[in-house]
From TrEMBL, chains A, B:
Top-level taxon in the UniProt lineage: Bacteria
Entries under InterPro entries matching the protein: DhaK_1, DhaK_dom, Dihydroxyacetone_Kinase
The entry's keywords: Kinase, Transferase
An example molecular function term from Gene Ontology annotations: kinase activity
Gene: dhaK
Keyword Kinase set for record: yes
Protein's UniProt keywords contain Transferase: yes
SUPFAM superfamilies xref list: DAK1/DegV-like
Protein name: PEP-dependent dihydroxyacetone kinase, dihydroxyacetone-binding subunit DhaK
Length: 332, 332
């Protein structure tokens, strides 16, 4: 294992410290318990809190800022954060209008966010939660009952964050988040595994001409391991289940998000995105907005995922609203 | 070799097509000859053109837009673009105030941009050039006489771009670019090699506990291959030669840029950046601005580079000026 790190036990904290130094204009760091939150006040606005295991950066910390998350709780690599972190972050961002938890559907995350919500309620902070499971690859998975939460989370955080920034109340922000979840689906593939620092060896190994279709962001098994295919064939293999599950049809509009797993260069991601657009155009589906890059990753894994969201005019308006975070910025 | 691509011969063109689809609000694509340029008019402003081999994305295409590059010419992977591309791009962005070529110091790039400048002059377009060589690792290299052009290029394109956007004339923009070059130095390291698609195998192989200090962005040899070290030791090993060469001293201000080579996760880059800041603070040097991420890459290479620029108040003002490109956005 070769990684740019000091002691394994320090990698998450030290990375958060470096992140907070680099983005002091946008975020504040608490080290005990560990969380990151917006540098500006949340007074009078609904707070948005997410979190999960580290190793998926820029998700979630990179999305803290105006028009997106209010705070994020990083767990150890691929390990849920704990309720103490979530409670402290909830208090830090509570601006009097309640807090929405955005939870990716993994058993540990779901359980710990539920506990934190109870603790917050006991302290008089109203909390609502949404649990996102947008991965169409498999029905249940290694650490998940039901579908895994993956790339759709990025879109959810952006769109719900825009609603919260605009002053929507907690019920409204939750409804916006649910509107994203109903209309977003994803699927990914891996060309290589990734090495969790504490494990010291790759979570799985693929042969030189092998890839895994339907991979999870922690390396959870997908649908099948098959021979490597061309970019266009890979994209088509991911889009088929997504489009089928969404029931997308001619004349509809989507946000198309081609995401890298961390170790795949942009050069390749744009080759894939080209086919995403061509495939959808061939079906009469219009790509109204595009997002391409490494936004929800799996350490240094090579591979990609595709996320499609059927988008209404109102959802596109929220997508276009200004966002000022370390990893996503536009319009302001 | 496992890459998300179709035919090797098509990877650069198809990637540019996907890029142009994803960023149609900002860029326009010409496929014959191949270049990308701003979607808006350059009338009345100095044009900024860069380019070089592909495989370093988001450099350069990702930096096209308001406040940065006017156009970029992508060559084949790790191969210089040709003068025909440069001439066509020059014409496309010529707004009557001349064009500045920003050239990384590699023999092929330098020669082809020189030829293009002659062709442009013959067509009545005034062209000036700057050749950047900011890599302190080695004096001459595989494809370079003198120092290689690396991470400093990103800072140069941003700062010169701000001057051009503000309406500076060609001589002034060139002077701003030269002011960056005098004050910026970089050095990188690799944990793995990278595979050029046309070669089909890694450009070099490092052992499980080995890294190469002073690597070039095409895998050119560095100073030495040594045993893997801690993140803090790696950062210190890069900073020493950079700081020495710049002659940085107590009380000075810098822009600190921690760059990933493509395959290294953000989790690790921020661990490194933490030590960059601590090391500089220990010397009494203030980090006035931060940039962390994969901005000048070497395909899927794991590793990083560090770039420091001694920055005046005027240079910081140009750094802070609005920039709206696919890969770098702020302030507007």
């Amino acid at each position: 294992m070769k990684k740019i790190m000091n002691a394994v036990a320090d990698i998450v904290r030290e990375s958060c410290e470096g992140f907070a130094l680099a983005h002091a204009d946008l975020v504040r760091l608490s080290t005990d318990p560990l969380f990151l939150c917006r540098a500006d006040s949340m007074s009078g606005r609904v707070g948005l809190l997410s979190g999960g295991g580290s190793g998926h950066e820029p998700l979630h910390s990179g999305f803290i800022g105006r028009g997106m998350l209010s705070a994020a709780c990083p767990g150890e690599v691929f390990t849920s954060p704990v309720p103490d972190q979530m409670l402290a972050a909830t208090k830090a961002i509570s601006g009097g209008k309640g807090v929405l938890y955005i939870v990716k559907n993994y058993t540990g995350d779901v359980m710990n966010f539920e506990l934190a919500a109870e603790l917050a309620a006991a302290e008089g902070i109203e909390v609502q939660s949404v649990v996102i499971g947008d991965d169409v690859a498999v029905e249940d998975s290694t650490w998940t009952a039901g579908r895994r939460g993956v790339g759709g989370t990025v879109l959810l955080e952006k769109i719900a964050g825009a609603a919260a920034e605009a002053g929507a109340d907690l019920a409204e922000v939750k409804k916006v988040a649910e509107g994203v979840m109903e209309n977003v689906r994803s699927m990914g593939l891996a060309l290589t595994g990734a090495t969790v620092p504490a494990a010291g060896k790759p979570n799985f190994v693929l042969a030189d001409d092998e890839m895994e279709l339907g991979i999870g962001i922690h390396g959870e098994p997908g649908r099948e391991r098959t021979a490597m295919k061309s970019a266009d064939e890979l994209v088509d293999a991911l889009l088929g289940p997504i489009i089928g599950d969404l029931g997308l049809g001619r004349g509809e509009e989507v946000i198309a998000f081609t995401n890298g797993m961390g170790g795949t260069p942009l050069l390749e991601l744009y080759v894939a995105h080209r086919q995403v657009v061509k495939h959808l155009e061939g079906l009469g589906v219009r790509v109204a907005r595009h997002l391409v890059g490494n936004f929800i990753t799996s350490l240094e894994m090579q591979g990609m995922s595709i996320t499609l969201m059927r988008a209404s005019a109102e959802q596109l308006r929220l997508w276009d609203a200004p966002v000022v975070t370390p990893a996503l910025r536009w319009g302001a």
